[in-house]
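Re: [ENG-882] Designed sequences occasionally contain unexpected residues at chain ends

Forwarding the minimal case from QA. Structure tokens:
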């Protein structure tokens, strides 16, 4: 395909490109009737537009060209915070991978996959916002961050050491654990091992995977679209920022450290939940993604989101969150500092993301008219309950 077919300018579609105009007659330059002829000149696009009476020339940088294309396709699209989180994360990791790829095999393929992800997500957002009445398209527009979470987690097996080449923080975290607690917590806690307690801890640990559907599906089924998008905005901020910390502080799990394994006389037992945990760990664990614990960061973010949009569910999830944090150390998958820092990071991310969605008017509870409607509905429910209770 010829270059002029790839880049064809239309004056009325790009009014910003015609800001400074140099007018000359086509007869003076001998241009004839040739229109919209792009030329490449030292990294700049030379845009020449002919009209019957004049010729308009403008040298437009590649940035202006891309900006105009963005305005044409995505200028009208409303991007939520979750969209910005996913796009920035994928773009950032893909861009940095070009310069930092120690030990990464076939790193250009990973860069290309990130580029495909970014373009695909942009189109999903554009089409979803353009046709919100199409259910399948809106489901994809709402829940696509789950795909991003899973892919970003799995690719860390190959990319987590791309900056340093080693898991350089592992020894520091192990040493801090021993310094603070006087023992290796994952070794010391084994004195409490018994089959039923082991099974309970595995139930807590495996319960982590049910937080997302428990929080988002009821909101989506009840057609609370803004609440569902706000929930993903908060949680995506927590998860993806936690993933960035994995790249900055690559730390190996105690279950993968030979020196700690030699100090452990036994392994946990259990029943059904224990087998499920072992199966998940065998297929989905990442070497170097321990600090801070994304399990704890994630469940805390989901629990706080539930407290905001589904209070009864939030009250149920909060104690389970504590159980998940304990189980990560009890089962030997995390150092004691991992869940502690996970709690801190999860709380920080929740507060920051909540402020951002409020500022962007994406939180339905902080919009005055929505809040007034919710109070009105609650008042009607109380009146109905009072009338039924009194036998009316």
């Amino acid at each position: 395909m010829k270059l002029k077919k790839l880049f064809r300018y239309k004056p009325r579609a790009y009014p910003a490109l015609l800001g400074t105009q140099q007018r000359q007659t086509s007869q003076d330059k001998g241009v004839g009737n040739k229109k919209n002829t792009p030329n490449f000149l030292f990294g700049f696009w030379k845009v020449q537009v002919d009209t019957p009476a004049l010729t308009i020339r403008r040298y437009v940088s590649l940035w202006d060209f891309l900006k105009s294309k963005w305005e044409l396709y995505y200028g009208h699209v409303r991007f939520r915070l979750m969209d910005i989180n996913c796009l920035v994360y994928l773009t950032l990791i893909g861009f940095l991978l070009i310069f930092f790829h120690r030990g990464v095999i076939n790193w250009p393929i990973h860069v290309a996959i990130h580029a495909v992800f970014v373009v695909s997500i942009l189109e999903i957002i554009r089409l979803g916002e353009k046709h919100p009445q199409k259910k399948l398209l809106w489901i994809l527009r709402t829940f696509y961050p789950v795909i991003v979470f899973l892919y970003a987690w799995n690719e860390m097996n190959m990319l987590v050491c791309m900056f340093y080449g080693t898991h350089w923080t592992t020894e520091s975290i192990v040493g801090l654990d021993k310094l603070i607690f006087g023992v290796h917590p994952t070794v010391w806690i084994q004195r409490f091992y018994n089959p039923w307690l082991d099974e309970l801890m595995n139930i807590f640990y495996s319960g982590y995977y049910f937080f997302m559907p428990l929080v988002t599906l009821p909101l989506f089924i009840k057609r609370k679209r803004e609440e569902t998008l706000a929930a993903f905005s908060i949680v995506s901020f927590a998860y993806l920022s936690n993933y960035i910390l994995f790249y900055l502080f690559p730390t190996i799990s105690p279950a993968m450290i030979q020196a700690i394994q030699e100090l452990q006389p036994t392994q946990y037992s259990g029943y059904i939940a224990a087998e499920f945990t072992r199966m998940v760990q065998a297929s989905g664990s990442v070497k170097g993604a321990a600090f801070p614990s994304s399990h704890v960061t994630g469940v805390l973010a989901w629990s706080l989101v539930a407290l905001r949009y589904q209070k009864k569910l939030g009250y149920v999830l909060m104690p389970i969150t504590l159980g998940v944090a304990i189980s990560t150390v009890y089962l030997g998958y995390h150092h004691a500092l991992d869940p502690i820092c996970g709690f801190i990071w999860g709380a920080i991310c929740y507060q920051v993301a909540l402020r951002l969605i409020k500022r962007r008017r994406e939180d339905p509870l902080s919009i005055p008219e929505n809040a007034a409607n919710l109070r009105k509905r609650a008042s009607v429910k109380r009146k109905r309950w009072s009338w039924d209770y009194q036998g009316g």
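QA comment: On inspection the terminal residues look reasonable. Confidence is low (pLDDT under 50) at residues 1-59, 381-392. Proposing we downgrade this to a documentation issue.
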